[in-house]
Write a structure and sequence with these properties.
Elements: E1 20-23, E2 31-34, H1 36-42, E3 48-51, E4 63-72, E5 77-79, E6 82-84, E7 87-93, H2 94-102, E8 113-117, E9 130-134, H3 135-140
Antiparallel strand pairs: 1-2, 3-4, 4-7, 5-6, 8-9
């Protein structure tokens, strides 16, 4: 597979054992590590830091990379001289995009299924580190015992 070298992008300067980074700011302070196969797809958007929701049984929110997606619901309209944009805004997390590109089927269950980082590092979004898990299984892994496998 031939990789096009971009002299302004340090991710294309070195060989295959390089970390491919998606940055959250212009100062390169926060970044997520992704696989080479996902890098070219993910670099086309601007990512930012976003805290997760606090679910029942969770002490503190974790920080992830996310982007905002706008869905146009219809035509914009004016009300009392003010423009009203008819759209819905949603948050898309980077690790969820990587998991969807991985094409692993989501388990069918009546429990809420989320994407879990196996090693507990929310900025390690490589394919072999992501898995589907329930919220209770994810909360058990917060203390450092990161077992592989899904418990439903």
């Amino acid at each position: 597979m031939a990789i096009l070298v971009d002299f302004l992008d340090p991710n294309t300067w070195v060989d295959d054992n390089h970390e491919y980074r998606i940055y959250a700011d212009d100062y390169a302070n926060q970044y997520a590590i992704v696989d080479q196969v996902d890098y070219q797809h993910l670099v086309q958007w601007r990512w930012r830091l976003k805290q997760s929701r606090i679910h029942r049984g969770t002490k503190q929110p974790k920080v992830y990379l996310a982007r905002v997606d706008h869905e146009q619901l219809g035509l914009d309209f004016y009300e009392d001289g003010n423009r009203i944009r008819n759209r819905r805004q949603s948050t898309i997390f980077l690790h969820t995009v990587v998991m969807e590109r991985k094409a692993t089927p989501k388990p069918i269950t009546n429990k809420k299924i989320i994407v879990d980082h196996a090693n507990g590092d929310s900025f390690d979004c490589r394919r072999n580190n992501l898995r589907y898990a329930t919220i209770s299984f994810n909360n058990r892994n917060r203390n450092g015992s990161h077992e592989y496998g899904l418990q439903l």
